[in-house]
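Technical note accompanying the year-one report. For the benefit of new consortium partners, we illustrate the data format agreed upon in the data management plan: each record pairs a sequence with a structure-token string. No post-processing was applied to the example shown here.
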Amino acid sequence: MTATLVELTASIVSSHAAGTEMSSDDLIQEINKVYATLKKLETEGAIPEAGAAPGAPVMTIKKAFQNDQVCCLICGKTGFKTLTRHLKQAHGLKPGQYRKQFNIPASQSLTAKNYSEARRKAANENNLAANLEKARAARAAKKPAAPKAQKEKAAAKPKAPKVAKARAPKAKA
């Protein structure tokens, strides 16, 4: 198994060194560190994370939801206007699951306050609320009319009575 650890170490360090400029001393130190970690994993099993306990927020909820940005409580990434897409892509969570995990009330929006205000203002300027009300009224007016029209069509077309087919009696053997 030692040869496999050496191969894994070489693979990990070479991948890291390909994207990061490292001196020879840094490279040796990285090799030793990765090898020691892999060896420890082999003997002890999984190593618990040094960070916070799983499910514990990276920051307070008050800090996470600011006027100009929203921060993810799972990974600590900042600068979002809305969290929905990040939660789905990076963590595979739905907003409801995220709220439940961190006890975020339903009244707390998962978007930046300034972003929500800008969207609300744009909707009011474009008269979207009135358009929505008109569309709902039109849909409501069509709903009762549609079943009546179907009933009238059904009454206009009388159905032919079903004729039972005569069957010949089976011959007994």
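Partners are asked to follow this layout when depositing records. Residues 2-44 form one domain.
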